[in-house]
């Protein structure tokens, strides 16, 4: 059975070795991680974040209205989508970027039918601008899109190999959790791998979420095959 996967790539993943902005080398790595999954028959929809440029919450104030700040955050995701689509196409992986906000000069507007049509033609679809609405994150947008696109699972790549009982960057004795219930992911205050709205959506609609390390070779393929990798929230 063909697996359709929603891959959530945060801005941090796309900035690679840089302090901010978009790292084409990292994007090339992502292309090479996605390639075997496509060869294996998976269909890939990507939601990109924008934290490598700016998140809405970072610039609210001193006259900048929250709505404007979040709109600017969404524009950050647009830059990532445009750049990532170019790198994936250049790597020989047919890809189309679509935006939930109309920016027709740059990329096509997202519609469900357009996205499905690209997927049916074996193209990767990258979605920019999250939900197109302020006060949300691209994690929530990713879950929302996964439901709309009838994905079998959401794969969120991170810098660590899954979810830990406490922050593994701060606590060396942190223990990795292989499986988490939605309820635990939602209520445990130490688990901040995804925002609660996103987890709530996953729980309501019973869609599995896999959290895994982007930089471990083969993780994306393993996750799309349903093999054990990182942490499964289900
Ligand atoms: N954003 C928004 N609505 C959405 C998705 C994102 O307003 O549906 C804004 C929000 O300000 C967010 C920014 O876009 O901070 C960038 O997205 P996010 O923080 O999720 O990026 P990531 O942390 O994944 O890089």
Keyword list:
234 residues, alpha/beta, Carbamate kinase, 9-stranded mixed beta sheet, 8 helices, globular, binds uridine-5'-diphosphate
Q: In whole angstroms, how far apart are the ends?
A: 20 Å
Widest β-sheet, arrangement of strands: 4-3-5-2-1-6-10-11-9
Number of separate structural domains: 1
Proportion of residues in β-strands: 15-25%
CATH class: Alpha Beta
Low-confidence stretches: none
Give a short account of the largest sheet. 9 strands, mixed
Radius of gyration, taken over Cα atoms and rounded to an integer in Å = 17 Å
Named once each, the bound ligands are: uridine-5'-diphosphate
User: In CATH terms, what is the fold-level topology?
Assistant: Carbamate kinase
Number of strands: 11
The arrangement of helices and strands along the chain is EHHEHEEHEHEEEEHHEHE
CATH homologous superfamily placement: Acetylglutamate kinase-like
CATH architecture: 3-Layer(aba) Sandwich
């Amino acid at each position: 059975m063909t697996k359709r996967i929603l891959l959530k790539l945060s801005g941090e993943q796309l900035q690679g070795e840089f302090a901010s902005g978009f790292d084409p080398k990292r994007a090339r790595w992502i292309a090479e991680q996605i390639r075997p999954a496509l060869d294996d028959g998976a269909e890939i929809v990507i939601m990109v974040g924008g934290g490598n440029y700016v998140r809405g919450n970072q610039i609210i104030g001193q006259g900048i209205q929250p709505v404007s700040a979040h709109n600017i955050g969404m524009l950050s995701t647009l830059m990532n989508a445009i750049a990532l689509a170019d790198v994936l196409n250049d790597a020989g992986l047919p890809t189309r970027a679509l935006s939930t906000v109309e920016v027709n000069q740059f990329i096509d507007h997202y519609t469900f039918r357009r996205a499905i049509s690209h997927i049916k033609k074996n193209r990767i679809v990258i979605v920019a601008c999250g939900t197109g609405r302020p006060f949300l994150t691209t994690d929530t947008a990713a879950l929302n899109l996964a439901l709309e696109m009838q994905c079998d699972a959401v794969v969120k790549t991170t810098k660590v190999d899954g979810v830990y009982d406490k922050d593994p960057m701060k606590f060396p004795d942190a223990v990795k959790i292989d499986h988490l219930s939605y309820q635990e992911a939602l209520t445990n205050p130490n688990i901040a791998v995804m925002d609660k709205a996103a987890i709530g959506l996953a729980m309501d609609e019973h869609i599995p979420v896999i959290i895994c390390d982007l930089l471990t070779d083969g993780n994306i393929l393993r996750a799309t095959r349903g093999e054990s990798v990182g942490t499964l929230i289900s």
